[in-house]
């Protein structure tokens, strides 16, 4: 059993007869009254996001997880196939378990959290950023901009990302996987 002081991003807990992963938390100490922890939880079975508040010192039931590296092989409809980089064992995960499935490129290595009790995969942690090639971008017209003007661009995985006007087809860009937003252009 853990308490609210052990809450951190990525922690998996049992709550309301389901397993949830904490994606955001905030410790709040109001001037009057007891402290509490405001959390945002994502169900690992159906992907729904839930807001919940725990009072300070509340006991939470932590799920023991093991993290392993898996390489993304290919997608088949809503099923994504991964291979363990050490044992070469393959697993198939549903699209709703992934945080950013539209940014997943074949060959990308991700961290999969596995429940040690049931040996079932719980969640997939993407790398912090990923480099993808722009396959389609409308040309930016010089002069019709205000500050920080952006345009939509398609990347090699099929995702659409808002990029600055100077990005062209064939450019490689770095994308933040947590927000799905453009970070910088990569020169090779």
From TrEMBL:
Stored SUPFAM superfamilies: Nucleic acid-binding proteins, Translation proteins SH3-like domain
Pathway: Protein biosynthesis; polypeptide chain elongation
Places the protein is found: Cytoplasm
Full protein name: Elongation factor P
A Pfam family per the record: Elong-fact-P_C
Keywords: Cytoplasm, Elongation factor, Protein biosynthesis
Family in the record: Belongs to the elongation factor P family.
GO molecular function: translation elongation factor activity
Residues annotated as domain Elongation factor P C-terminal: 130-185
Function: Involved in peptide bond synthesis. Stimulates efficient translation and peptide-bond synthesis on native or reconstituted 70S ribosomes in vitro. Probably functions indirectly by altering the affinity of the ribosome for aminoacyl-tRNA, thus increasing their reactivity as acceptors for peptidyl transferase.
Keyword Cytoplasm: yes
Boundaries of every Translation elongation factor P/YeiP central domain copy: 67-122
């Amino acid at each position: 059993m853990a308490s609210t002081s052990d809450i951190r991003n990525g922690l998996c807990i049992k709550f309301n007869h389901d397993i949830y992963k904490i994606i955001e938390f905030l410790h709040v100490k109001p001037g009057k009254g007891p402290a509490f922890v405001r959390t945002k939880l994502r169900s690992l079975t159906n992907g729904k996001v839930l807001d919940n508040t725990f009072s300070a010192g509340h006991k939470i039931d932590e799920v023991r997880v093991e993290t392993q590296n898996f390489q993304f092989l290919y997608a088949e409809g809503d099923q994504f196939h991964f291979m363990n980089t050490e044992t070469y064992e393959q697993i198939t995960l549903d699209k709703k378990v992934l945080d950013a499935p539209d940014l997943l490129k074949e060959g990308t290595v991700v961290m999969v959290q596995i429940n040690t009790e049931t040996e079932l995969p719980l969640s997939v942690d993407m790398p912090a950023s990923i480099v993808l090639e722009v396959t389609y971008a409308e040309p930016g017209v010089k002069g019709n901009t205000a500050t920080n003007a952006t345009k939509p661009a398609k990347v090699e995985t099929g995702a659409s990302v808002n990029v600055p006007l100077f990005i062209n087809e064939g450019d490689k860009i770095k994308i933040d996987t947590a927000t799905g937003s453009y970070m910088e252009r990569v020169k090779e």
